[in-house]
Design a protein that fits this description.
The protein is α/β, with parallel strands linked by helices. Helices cover 38% and strands 17% of the residues. It contains ten helices and eight strands. A five-stranded mixed beta sheet has the order 6-5-4-7-8. Strand 4 and strand 5 form a beta hairpin. The N terminus is likely disordered.
């Protein structure tokens, strides 16, 4: 076999291999030397360590004709996403058609994005891994949603992940569709989940910070499997007997906290959607109780309703004191 030396380089997102465009000599039936017809074929030279016991090094695949693959079929294969088959990548890289080159560049971008996402998700397990190395077996992430709005409850969640979950991130950085999909994935994935709600009336009674702590503690207590270590977004929890670590921006740094943030956020958003029907005119479905211009104008027009936090501005009356001097 004569290798012409046109090296295509290693394919993307799979084990390194060398791909060469070869001319394969075939002797005529009369056995005349020098009278050869050449046919093109792909030869994949694969390192033995990458093949496993069932395959042999230097595997030559059958003839692979580019003309057999339409751009539509290649687009369909690329749309499936990484990891991409080796032959697909080799085909795209060797195809001179403009559409095929564009598909290859798309593969490059997708592979880079996938690798960056995998690296991000792996980094988000560092605190869970450290806790387990220190002997803790049931590590729960804890987060809340709804501290800042003028209306509605605080919702907190605690989650013990059974396994890593692709796509987890701070719930505020995800779209509603992404949050809903991850919510369903978490609920159906065998993970331990606890959730707690603190009403607007209790928030007014004990104050927002105490209500925040209470929601987190109740979410942890709601877990069917008691955790032995907590990763908490932003706060150390006063009075919590379980060892825990406070992580600033923890929902971007820990998969467990990110999972809790999604459970809390989606649960509260769905509650606010229902409260929108019970209290029309305020737009709770759109702003979820936050102090948007629409919400402020509605309060000015309609006054506060039963789910507004009366201890919050603009409802709370300022403290009036006499002259100091």
């Amino acid at each position: 076999m004569l290798c012409l030396g046109r090296t295509l380089g290693p394919p993307l997102f799979c084990d390194p291999i060398r791909v060469r465009w070869c001319a394969q000599g075939q002797q005529s039936q009369q056995g005349q030397r020098g009278q050869q017809s050449r046919t093109r074929s792909w030869k994949f030279i694969v390192p033995e360590s990458k093949l496993g016991s069932r395959r042999q090094p230097g595997v030559t695949f059958p003839e692979y004709s580019l003309e057999k693959h339409s751009l539509d079929s290649l687009r369909e294969a690329v749309a499936a996403g990484p990891p991409y088959p080796r032959k697909l990548l080799a085909t795209l890289r060797g195809d001179e058609r403009t559409g095929a080159r564009a598909l290859y560049e798309r593969c490059l971008r997708e592979v880079r994005r996938t690798k960056a996402e995998r690296k991000r998700l792996e980094a988000m397990l560092q605190f869970e891994s450290t806790a387990r190395q220190n002997g803790f077996l049931r590590v729960a992430g804890v987060d809340e949603a709804g501290r800042g709005p003028l209306a509605g409850p605080i919702v907190a969640a605690a989650v013990i992940l059974r396994e890593p979950v692709d796509g987890l991130n701070d719930s505020k950085l995800l779209t509603e569709e992404q949050r809903d999909a991850l919510f369903d994935m978490l609920q159906g994935g065998g993970h331990a989940i606890g959730c707690a709600v603190v009403s607007p009336q209790e928030i007014d009674s004990i104050g927002i910070q105490a209500a925040n702590y209470a929601a987190m503690l109740r979410a942890v207590d709601a877990l069917l499997e008691a955790p032995d270590f907590l990763l908490v977004d932003g706060f150390a929890i006063p009075g919590c007997a379980i060892p825990h670590e406070r992580l600033v921006k923890g929902d971007r740094r820990s998969q467990s906290i990110a999972a809790a943030s999604i459970i809390a956020k989606v649960t509260r958003d769905r509650m606010m959607d229902e409260l929108d029907a019970a209290h029309p005119g305020y737009g709770f479905r759109r702003h979820k109780g936050y102090a948007t211009r629409e919400h402020i104008d509605a309060i000015a027009s309609l006054g506060p309703c039963a789910i507004h936090r009366k201890s919050f501005a603009p409802f709370a009356k300022p403290l009036v004191t006499g002259e100091l001097f």
